[in-house]
Structure formats: structure tokens, C-alpha cells
Amino acid sequence: MASLTFMDVAQVDLGKLGTAVSDWKKTVDNLQKLAKSADSGMVAKSESARWAGENATVTREFIKKTAKQFDDAHAEAKSIWTLLDDAHTELVAIQKSMKTAVDVDAPNLGVRIEDIGGGAVRWYFPHIRGDSDERTQNQLDAAQELADRITGLIAHAAEIDANMARALGRTNKNDPNDFSSNNYASLDDAEKDRALELARLGRKMNDKQFAEFNSIMKYNTKDPEFADAFYTGLGGPKQALEFFGQMSIDSAHGDNKARLELTKELQRNMGLTLATATDPDHNPGYLKDWGAQFRKLGTQQIPLEKYGRDSPPFGYQLLGGIMRYGNYDPKFLNPIAEHVIQLQQKDPILFAHSKSEFGTNLYNPSGKEGAGFDPVPGVLEALGHSPEAAKQFFTAEPTAYNEDGSVKGGAADLGKVKNEAITNYLDYFTNEDYKGFPGDINGHFNPDAIQKATNYVPDALGHALEAATLGHAYDDPTPKLVRDEDSEAIMKSVVEKYGDADLLDRQEVLSDSLGRMGAGYVDDINWALNDNDSTSMFAPQRDPADHAEFGRDGARNFLNALGRHPDAYAELSNAEKIYTTSVLDAQVGDNGTINQAHAREAVRTGGEVQGMLDESRADQVKADGLAKDEAYNKALEKRAGWIEFGTGVGIAAGAAFLPPVAAAGVAATLIPVITDAGTGALEQHLGNVIGDWSESKQQDSGDDVLKQRLAIYDAGEATSEAPMREFMKLHGIERDSEFGGDLEEALNSGYDKGSNRAAHMAKS
């Protein structure tokens, strides 16, 4: 691939390319006229001429061939013009985006961008006289994100340049004295052709070719025409699985880290592209029958080598690796997910028959959630990236499937609990007797790895539940909170299920997902603590169907269970603080008057939530010792990056957006807020509250359990006070005033109530 620099892309005069496009368009039009003239002129006259003998045959054939050359010339010129026009359009858009990044975004960040060659750039904050040159982590992260975005644009431009060179090079490659038949209808057509050419090399692709293949795929994963052409060009569902499987096992042997990284990118690109190719809503020519074919292949073992192992992989093991990435349509994904799970229910060790002791992550190059022998985490990860499919999966009545993937009819067999048939997939995965795959690991004899593998399914289940209840992919870096009647019904079931602390203890690995889900429904948790009273200040004012009624006991059980797990505690504690801040802001009228009764209730309920969380946390420290509290402090510290963005808190569509802390691997969190006070003001207030939290950091200290427990309560009270303190400061409310005293009393009574209730629940 040609190496372009930042300056090449930013400063190239694309006007010259635009002129070339115009000139070629004129050539195309003129050749079209000439071709038509040849057909209607000399060919027509030749055919109507009264020639006889051998000369007539030779002359007519010569005239036809000459006329065809005009047609071929027009076709080739049109192909060249199309390629140039597509490239010009895409490069203009890239250059525009780059200029915005450099001329607008960089100055707003106070950053300068410098070309360092090879398609890379560096950023720096120029020194300003009198400036300390100290930068927050958020500023540093924003600067790096800008640089990454610019290098991505450079890479995209380089890919377009390389594709153009390849496509133009294929013109006339067969005969320099004849016009070419290697013509393209678009640059996308040329990219598809090259991608398939490389894919047919399979494991024979060298690293340079592999990188080129991935680059083409990366920029076309959302293009329906490319997606269709690529997958059909591979030959069909079986050939697609064979291609992925061969590339995957090729990287699983040996210690070629560069090759492994290329294969991880292949896995992602194939998943995203398959999601596009099978999406009927955005892709009219979608691969309609591929779902049924994949299901039929799911239980078939697919040899990947001529003299390969005796137990080659099952179709579902290969498909599970691909489908870990991509937002899939429910009509394609859900029958596959249901079929996989029903096969596992019938025979938990079915897919163990292809286990191998050799190679690393044979069918899941990413290594995330298993080695790839168990397809269940793969389909759950697919659901975690597919919100609509996830909602239907957890709400629709299960469909029964035969072993070959065809619809069976009747009720699906998901097993029984206490002789009662299981009728939905949430019950299936939370069943105490659930039997999963016996060790989705590399090799066979590693007890630690086997124990770790028990977390793969519940962790992926948490991701699927996040997508179903929050309406966005669980790892979306810029998510939007989308709740409706189906998602709230699922969340209600989740609160009921995981209010069972013993269940969450068994599936602790998904506590971080439950924490984000609780944050996304923190408004309904507050309403539930008011016993879902329709006159409560927390009762929904509009779209009541989008809100879940957990009930007071349900909310308390859920808070008590989640408070026992560090990541969930950190998510919910922060969410409550932010939600309470927004509720307090909404109690101030346009004329500055304050609804004091509602303000007191907002503070009281916020204190109650924090009190329950802190008591559960303290009980866990008492049960597990100081080491457990270290885990809480680390969970809170991971989210310390939220402190840095201050007034950069984003408010949109009724939710506050806390961005992911990339360095710590914490996913983005969305928290419902009341925005009647005006988003600009609320963003500032939220920034101040988060900043106040940075001073106490909601952490604690102590060299024994008793001191640690006391420190937990002190830190928790400071946390629950933060929204109230900001509110009082903004509106000049003195602590020793009557209203100030009322707020203090409301906070203390709420915190004590929550703490006492949690303590009582722990003893019962």
C-alpha cells in the first residue's frame, strides 16, 4: 500500500483530480457517441450491403470487430472515469474531515498537530507563557483521540490511493494492443474484487497481503453491496466458515504475534461485514437463506485441512468466532442463538468432541470469553452487540429447533427447575443447575483455566442483558440510552432475579454489567423506593411504559445484592449522585423559587440509596476482610477518570454520558437525568459534583475491619452529601437556615434508613 503522510492528505490539491474527472467524463461521452455512430453507421451499412463471396465475410467481420473496439473503448473509459470520480468524492470528504480536525478541533483543545511521516502524527500542547503545562488525563486522552482520528483518515486515504492504483493497473493487463474487459462499475467494485482475490490465497497470504485485505475490509464493513459480494464471492456459508477457520488455526499455532493481531482484525471485520450482509432493513439484497444454512452447518464438523485432525470444528464453533462482532438483525441472529443454546441444553458436551490440546484460541483469535470451542459465549456476545435482537431474545416465547436447525414446533426444551419447565432464556441461564460447556480452554489439564472458564457464559450473558435493557451495544463508546416497554420488562425481571444475592455471588463476573444497567434505570430505582406511588416526585411524567416498576422490596434487594460487588457499587453510587443532582436542579423554577418539599425528598432518597450500598459494602468487608475493600477502592479508582472531564459531562436525550476510561477498560455509562433546568447549567453542576467527589474519592482507610467499616460510612456520607452541598452553594442556602437544616435532616434520615434496612436484610 502506498505510504501517504499527513501533509500529503491535508495539502494535496484535489482540484487537479477533479479536473481529470471532468476530462474523463467528456471522453466517456464522446466515445459513447462514437460507439453509437459506429453501430448505426458502418455496421448497419455493412449488414445491408449486397456483398458476396469471401470478401463480404471478411469485411463484415472486420467492421464488427472495429465497432466493438469503440464499445470497449467506451466501457474502459467509463470504468476509469467512475474510479476517478469515486476516489475524488471520498478523498474530498476525508480532506474536509481532516481540516475540521486540525483547524477546529485541535485549537479548541489547545493542541497542535505535527507530521512525523509514515502516516503518523504527534500532538503537543504548545507552551504559553505563565502556564504550568500541567494537563488533566482527560485533556491528554482527548488529544490522543484526535491524533488517532487523523491517522485513521490518513490510512483511509492511503487505502483509496492503493485501490485506485490496483484497479487502474488491471486495465489492459491482458493485451496492451486491445481494450480491456477488466472494467469496474465503482471503486467499491474494485475493492471487492481485490478482497476476494486475496481471500482466495487463504493461509498463503503473506503479512503484507493480509494487512491489505484487512484494510479493504475495515472500510467496507457497513457497505451492503460489498458485504453481499464478499460473502457470496467466497462461495457460500460453508466456504465462509472454512476461510475463517483456516486463517484462525493458522495463527493459533506458533508464536507469531503479528500474524495473530492480523487474524484478530480479520475476525472483527468478518463479523461486522456478515452483520451487514444479513440485515434486511438496510440491505435489500441481503443473504436471505444464509441463516438456515448456517444452522444446518452448525452441528456438522467442517474439515479445514486435507489431512487434518480426526475431530475438525463444528460449524457453530467457527460461526461463534465470527459473530462475536456486529449488530445483527433478530431474524438472522435469534434462531441461531436459540438453536445453539438448545443443542447445549440437550448435550452439554456436544461441542467438546472437537477439543484440541494444540494451538491457542483456535476458533476465537480474540481470546475474549474463551478459546472458541463453546459457541454459547459467541452468540451471547452477538446479542450484546445487537440491542433489538437481544430484546426479542429475552421477551419472545422460545422457538423449538431440530438438530439440523429447522423449526421443530411445540415448546422448546430448556430443562426444568423443581420439575417445572423453564420457559425463557433468562431463567435458563440463572438456573442453579445450569450445566455449561466443560472448560472452553486451550488444552485440557489446567485447573485454574477451567475455573476461569466458568465465567465466560455469565459475563457474556451480562453483555446481552445490557444491550436488551439499555438499547445499545454493551461496549459502544458513544452510546444512547434507549428504553421501551420491552426493555423495561426485561429489566424488571433482572432486578427480581439478581435481587437474590446468592445468585449474584455465583455469577459475580456480570456485576459490572448489572451496575451499568442499574445506572441506566436509577430513576426507576428511586421511584421504587417511594413504593412506585403515582404521586411520587419520581413517578414518570411522560412515556410511563418506558419505566419499570420494581417495587420497594425489589429495589432494596437489588441494591443490597449489588452493593456487595465492587464494580456494581461504584457504578450505582456514581449514578445516584448524578441523578440526584439533576433532580435537585429541576426543583428550581424560572423565578428562582424552590420546591422545598421535593428537594428534601430528593436528598432523602439519594441518602437512602447510598446508605444501602454502603452497608452492603461494609458487610462484605466484614465477611471477607480488608482485601475485599481494596477491590472496592480499585473499582472506584478505575472510574476516577470521570473526575477529569468536569463540565465535559454530556447531556443528551435525557441521559448523562460518562465516557469510558480507556486505560482502565471501564465501559461507558449512561444515567437518566431530569433536564428541565437546562442542559448547559446541569452539565456545569454535574461537573462540580464530580469534582467534589475527587477530593474525598469516596475511598477509605483503616488498618482493621472496624476502622475500615467506619471509614466506609464516612466516605459514603460525604458522597451522598455532594449533590446537596452543590445545590445549597448555588442557591445561597445556609446550613444553619431552616431549609438548610431540613435538607441536612433529610439526608441523615435517608442514609440511616438505607443503612439500617440493609443491615436488617443481612441478618434475616
Parts with pLDDT < 50 across at least 5 consecutive residues = 643-648, 694-698
CA-CA gap between termini: 68 Å
Rounded to an integer, what's the Rg over CA atoms? 31 Å
**Percentage of β-strand residues:** under 5%
Q: How much is the average pLDDT?
A: 83
Question: Which strand order do you get reading across the main beta sheet?
Answer: 5-6-7
Tell me the quaternary state.
single chain
**Number of separate helices:** 29
Give a quick account of the main beta sheet: strands, pairing sense, barrel closure.
3 strands, antiparallel
What fraction, in percent, of the residue positions are helical?
A: 55-70%
| Strand segment tally | 7
Structural class call reads: mainly alpha
What form results from the Cα inertia axes? globular
